[in-house]
Amino acid sequence: xxxxxxxxxxxxxxxxxxxxxxxxxxxxxxxxxxxxxxxxxxxxxxxxxxxxxxxxxxxxxxxxxxxxxxxxxxxxxxxxxxxxxxxxxxxxxxxxxxxxxxxxxxxxxxxxxxxxxxxxxxxxxxxxxxxxxxxxxxxxxxxxxxxxxxxxxxxxxxxxxxxxxxxxxxxxxxxxxxxxxxxxxxxxxxxxxxxxxxxxxxxxxxxxxxxxxxxxxxxxxxxxxxxxxxxxxxxxxxxxxxxxxxxxxxxxxxxxxxxxxxxxx
Amino acid sequence: xxxxxxxxxxxxxxxxxxxxxxxxxxxxxxxxxxxxxxxxxxxxxxxxxxxxxxxxxxxxxxxxxxxxxxxxxxxxxxxxxxxxxxxxxxxxxxxxxx
Lengths: 265, 98
Known about the structure:
The complex is a heterodimer.
Chain A: E1 6-11, E2 14-19, H1 23-32, E3 37-38, E4 45-51, E5 64-68, E6 71-76, E7 79-84, E8 89-94, H2 98-116, E9 119-128, E10 131-136, H3 143-148, E11 155-158, E12 161-167, E13 170-174, E14 190-201, E15 206-209, H4 212-222, H5 230-246, E16 249-254
Parallel strand pairs in A: 2-4, 4-8, 10-14, 14-16
Antiparallel strand pairs in A: 1-2, 1-3, 5-6, 6-7, 7-8, 9-10, 9-11, 9-12, 12-13, 13-14, 15-16
Chain B: E1 5-8, E2 12-17, E3 20-25, E4 31-34, H1 36-43, E5 46-50, H2 51-63, H3 67-83, E6 87-90
Antiparallel strand pairs in B: 1-5, 1-6, 2-3, 3-4
Helix pairs in contact in B: 2-3
């Protein structure tokens, strides 16, 4: 390994050292994760990147995550990764593109977060008056629209993937570099979560309370999770139930103009 | 008249939130929410208490529903839950899982 070909990417307060022998790829990663690169972090998690030449056809396909002898194997058409939760070390074999690493990082973060009761959520999120607000929904629900309409006094954490970790009796939301249609990375800041909104577009702005049962069902539908491991699935279920008990959930029907943010307090 | 016996599947995770029971299938990751009456039946599904007894003691008395109506609804419910693999239904008492 040549010295210096590594960077530490810290997302959600979790630093992961990415090592590569390729200086051009390191530079590419530096650019991709700008704002989330720590110049000097002693994070224990390490991913060794093994670059392969691009194949003739770059079809990504579905991702598969399986546990083999205590080590996670993560596979998609464009990359193969491993992750050992005991040593917090992993590998990624991919061609020199940012997208494969992005997916591998998302999955490894879901595995790391699952251990501590956190999760990644299909949600835009932002901070206003020191508290974080989550706007959850699958593709087309309006996450990017809402993020685009955010007023100047709101700090955008993400328009696509929210990063949530338990803190005290509640949860803290962190900015992520995982951008959606807005193609803009979030701010690398965090705040305690005040409320969760499930998005729906409509003719007028309206907020309705959502019961905990429905909130848990909707939340589970929107949590990023790839592993089929029964133990992890149960842990995720417990996490979702704990989340809806500590964070109030609402259905936010909104007409796409900036007035919707008047309701977000 | 033969009766049914119902038992919760071992391959699920369940949690009561408010008045509702939220259930996740460990096999398919599908999530179900049961209303108050269905939750009462679910909680009483011990594998040895006949469904008719569960309906009489947990549904009719608690929710003021006519027995035959309640039993018919309960049969539909348990058949549906069994179809999703989260409840076991048998003509004989069911040994508890685990």
